[in-house]
Amino acid sequence: MSSAKRYASVDALRGLSVAAMLLVNNPGDWGHVYAPLEHAAWNGCTPTDLIFPFFLFIVGVSISLALGGRIESGASKAPMAKMVGQRALRIMVLGLVLHLLAWWLMHKPEFRIPGVLQRIGICFALVGWAVIYLRKRSQWLLLAALLTAYAALLLGGGSLDKVGNVASRFDAAVLGRFAYEWVASTGLGHDPEGIVSTLGALATCLLGARAGDLLRRGAVRSLLLQGLAAAALGWLGSAVLPFNKQLWTPSFVLWTGGLGALALAGAHALIDRAGWPALGRSFGVNAIAAYAGAWMCTVLLEGFGWMAPLYASGFGWLQPYIGPWGQSLAFAIAFVAVWAAIVMALDRRGIYFKV
């Protein structure tokens, strides 16, 4: 899927999303996370809550950019669908391997099946197949159906709190102890990348696919209108179904997808057209490798007991000056800086890891 025209703006947005993931996932001290790097406790949408939706949105954009030209030229659909399925499977397997590594080295009580890469793989496959086999109008209808059906499921499924919502109840019943959170004594559980909430994630990725088609055709005005309309609908819809990343509510889909489209339009205007530097590009062209490498780095540091001494000896001297929250932020920035140096070195040498 690399033969299509590359947009530096897309690589930059993808890379900035990955860098932000590393920033919020590696605070050094989870007891003193710098406030803006925290997710909303439940309902709400912090800047950190935008990161994963933006990445999934860009996954959808990239699917359209990679496949759109081939589809229009009449290329055979079966080989494209096979390629999409194979890559999606590799992404999911990598996610499971990373979780296996964390379970083994960090002595976690249970092995978690869902995860970020697993969700990316599922969305990549299903949205890729939708782009291949469905006309544009049908893709919009599928998006509307996803949002409507998921909203009805959440509203008709009882409480919307963390324990009682239908998504958590279903995930607890199906995943049990293999979920992110599981209480054996009550049979209750929850997973922020669970099965049911993947409906919302699919909608985000599909919104990205439609935005990618507009970008590929140079319809920047339509892209802006899509962003404004989606964000406005999401804002209005939050009065009925609040923004909630862990449930990936329809209002959250539209709000973050709208902001993603606006960010894409802005990045395209500034980077592709005006020639601004594509900040984050090195992360973007090695996105999965950077995410997986950083994950393994963190797991090794934690698993061998090196993280706490590194944090204390390397950053403890900062606490009297900037407090424990500033110390945590400094560690997170340093972690991202190390990986920025790695991906920039790989980029300079033309080394790109693909899954």
From TrEMBL:
- Coiled-coil features, chain-numbered ranges: none
Keywords from UniProt, A to Z, are:
Membrane, Transmembrane, Transmembrane helix
Record domain Heparan-alpha-glucosaminide N-acetyltransferase catalytic: where: 6-157
Residues spanning the membrane: 12-30, 50-67, 88-105, 117-134, 141-160, 194-211, 223-240, 252-271, 283-308, 328-346
Q: What is the protein's given name? A: Heparan-alpha-glucosaminide N-acetyltransferase domain-containing protein
